[in-house]
């Protein structure tokens, strides 16, 4: 098992917080691959001291000299991973408890799938204190991803864009490396979770692991920052990934049908009557699935 930890100009307290949750995982052998994307200061000394103090030797530091974007930074890490499965985390994000990795890997292997996704409790740091926040969950239509057919899974993910939070994936290392290479080849720079869009488009769908696995720092990542600049950059990455889909050889009729929906400009009315769109919009408006919250004693409530 490999845990990829990506950093860029990150506060070391956030780095330390996340690493403590990683090195504390039990009953599983794993490595940690830290990949720095050309930070002004890469914390090499502090990282080595952290691992030395905890007698954790199975780690690698990939200290890139130049900033190259999230995708290539991630790729530089996964290319040296030796584990069968890979899980990525960023500073501020933590494993929910010390048995997450063991249970997640077991579930994925027993389910016979290439990747599995789970749940997260969202939090944010306000005035130096962590507080749990409850917001609409991704994906929204979870039942489709659990009980629906492969084609319904693909349609909801690609056409309706009911995406899964990027921090909630655990994947076979070789497969994730292949797809990271594909999006990097067309200069997708920041949205490394486009690998999941591309996998789903190719019919590689995952399974739902019904468990809270991650404490996710809400608002600190590029996808939840609300920045216009980052919104534009992510849109460019999205469109470049669509180009890979369009250029695929031997497209099936279903893939062509999905591409037609996501590529051709459509009027609002025609968009609304895209298969499943109206139901999805109404459900988002009136029956939103919300993120789990912590209860007394550390349990969670993942109610809709």
The chain-level structural class is: alpha/beta
Q: Can you give the helix content as a percent range?
A: 40-55%
Oligomeric composition of the shown chains: single chain
The number of distinct helices, counting runs of at least 4 residues, comes to 12
Rg over C-alpha atoms, rounded to the nearest angstrom: 19 Å
Mean pLDDT: 90
- The span between the termini is 32 Å
Detailed description of the structure:
The structure is a single chain. The protein has 304 residues and is of the alpha/beta class. It is 41% helix and 20% strand. The strands form 2 sheets. Strands 1, 2, 3, 4, 5, 6, 7, 8 and 9 form a 9-stranded mixed β-sheet that branches. Strand 2, helix 2 and strand 3 form a beta-alpha-beta unit.
């Amino acid at each position: 098992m490999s845990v990829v930890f990506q950093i860029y100009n990150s506060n070391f307290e956030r780095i330390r917080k996340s690493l403590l949750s990683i090195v504390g995982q039990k009953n599983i052998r794993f490595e940690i691959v830290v990949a720095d994307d050309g930070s002004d200061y890469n914390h090499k000394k502090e990282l080595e001291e952290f691992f030395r103090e905890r007698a954790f030797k199975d780690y690698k530091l990939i200290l890139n000299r130049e900033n190259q974007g999230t995708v290539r930074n991630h790729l530089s890490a996964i290319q040296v991973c030796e584990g069968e499965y890979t899980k990525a985390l960023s500073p501020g994000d933590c494993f929910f408890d010390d048995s997450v990795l063991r249970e997640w890997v077991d579930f994925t292997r027993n389910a016979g799938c290439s990747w599995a996704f789970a749940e997260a409790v969202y939090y944010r740091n306000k005035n130096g204190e962590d507080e749990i926040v409850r917001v609409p969950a991704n994906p929204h239509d979870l039942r489709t991803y659990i009980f629906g057919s492969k084609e319904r899974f693909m349609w909801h993910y690609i056409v309706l864009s009911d995406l899964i939070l990027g921090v909630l994936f655990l994947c076979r290392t070789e497969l994730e490396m292949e797809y990271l290479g594909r999006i990097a080849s067309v200069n997708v720079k920041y949205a490394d979770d486009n690998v999941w869009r591309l996998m789903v488009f190719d019919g590689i769908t995952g399974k739902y692991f019904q468990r809270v696995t991650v404490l996710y720092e809400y608002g600190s990542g590029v996808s939840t920052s609300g920045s216009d600049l980052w919104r534009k950059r992510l849109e460019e990455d999205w469109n470049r990934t669509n180009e890979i889909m369009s250029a695929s050889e031997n497209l099936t009729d279903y893939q062509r049908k999905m591409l037609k929906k996501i590529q051709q400009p459509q009027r609002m009315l025609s968009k609304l009557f895209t298969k499943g769109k109206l139901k999805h919009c109404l459900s988002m408006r009136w029956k939103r699935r919300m993120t789990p919250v912590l209860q007394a004693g550390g349990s969670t409530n993942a109610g809709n």
